[in-house]
Amino acid sequence: MSTQRSDNRQRRPGLTRRQLLKGTAVAAGGAAFGAPGLIRSAQAKRFLKPIVAGLNAKPGDPSYNSVSRIPEILKEKFDIEMEFQIHPTSTLGTDVSQLEAVQTGFIDITSNTTAQFSVFSKEFEFVDLPYAFTDWDMASRLFHSDLWKEQAAKFEQNVPVKVLPPVGAGGYRLLWNNVRPLPDPGAVQGLKFRTTRSPLSIQLIRNWGGNPTPLPWTETYNGLKSGVVNGFHVQPIWTYLFKMHEVLKYATEVKAIFAVQFQVMNINTFNAMPDDMKGPFMQAAQMAADEANAQDRSLEDEYKAKLTEAGMSIYQPSAAETRQWRSAGEAVWESHGGSIDKSVIERMVAMR
After folding, report:
1. The 250-252 sheet, strands edge to edge
2. Measured between alpha carbons, how far is 132 from 186 in angstroms, rounded to an integer?
3. pLDDT tens digits for 133-178?
């Protein structure tokens, strides 16, 4: 891990942090950049260092709102002023490069699915076991559980970040493609599916008979259009907002993976906050995440309807077909679940 992290630091995005912050008002009292401070008054506190967030979501998406609402809640509830500069839709880099950038401090906050973070540390790999989640209620129990907090603390020991409260990322993923309907795994043979670099994601597609092809999210639309890949396993809201339905046709509700958006902050940025600001910041982050999860939960069916209205075909497998999807998916637990702490899996399953 230490070797990879050193290599990661060499691959900085072309845009410098100074360029990102250009135009930001000079800190009161001539405070130097990189030395964040706190202005105190009878009314409010103010953190002088602008917080740069590089997100993969679009404005209005619940996972975008879960970050953008933090400074608003800080001001409304805690009389703390903090400037957030949010760069959406992966404008600061690919999925992985933004995850690397938050570790080096090039950006302060980022988020992505738990599967993407597994290349840095494995503490949340259990979330991506196929058919682990039963519904939104279980997800909420897990997000607020001691298990999640304990795994977050372990993750922070291995990766230089502060783990922020998680949000759902559109509910269950649909298995999309632009070639043919997929009523059961037997129909998947020969199709190429975009995946993350997560071994669990790759193995799941293989178990269903597809050819996994790791591809950055930013390259997925063109990959589908050009035939580099034929489909992907993605939730409805992301399929619709990123206009992927323009290059897709068929989907199957396999309900194997409940997408979770993992949110992190550079540890040095968090530690630079005065002690009496850290608690309110984390409370505001939790409130923002709770709001986003409520919004996200209400939108899942709405975006499936939007995709249907746009001409997409969403197939509901029969009970027998569902058993085939589930059997092939759950086989991942045996082939790749052995590296995951058994007690973690047992505690997660107990939340069903």
Report:
1. 211-214, 192-195, 231-234, 174-177, 250-252, 313-315
2. 23
3. 999 999 999 999 999 999 999 999 999 999 999 999 999 999 999 9
Is the whole-model pTM more than 0.90? no
Cα distances from 48 to residues 26, 39, 76, 232, in angstroms, run 9, 8, 18, 42
Neighbouring C-beta atoms of residue 290, cutoff 10 Å: 16
- CA distances, 305 to each of 285, 289, 313 (Å): 30, 25, 10
Question: Tokens for 235?
Answer: 């939730």
DSSP H or E segment with residue 86: strand 80-87
Spell out where 184-302 has E strands.
Answer: 192-195, 211-214, 231-234, 250-252, 258-266
In sign, the C-alpha dihedral spanning 72, 281, 172, 240 is positive
Which residues are within 8 A (CB) of 50 and not within 5 positions of it... i.e. 6 or more apart? Answer: 21, 24, 83, 84, 85
More reliable by pLDDT, 30 or 92:
92
Contacts of 19 (CB under 8 A, 6+ apart): none
- Looking at 184-274, list the stretches that DSSP marks H as alpha helix, in order from N- to C-terminal side: 199-207, 220-226, 236-241, 267-272
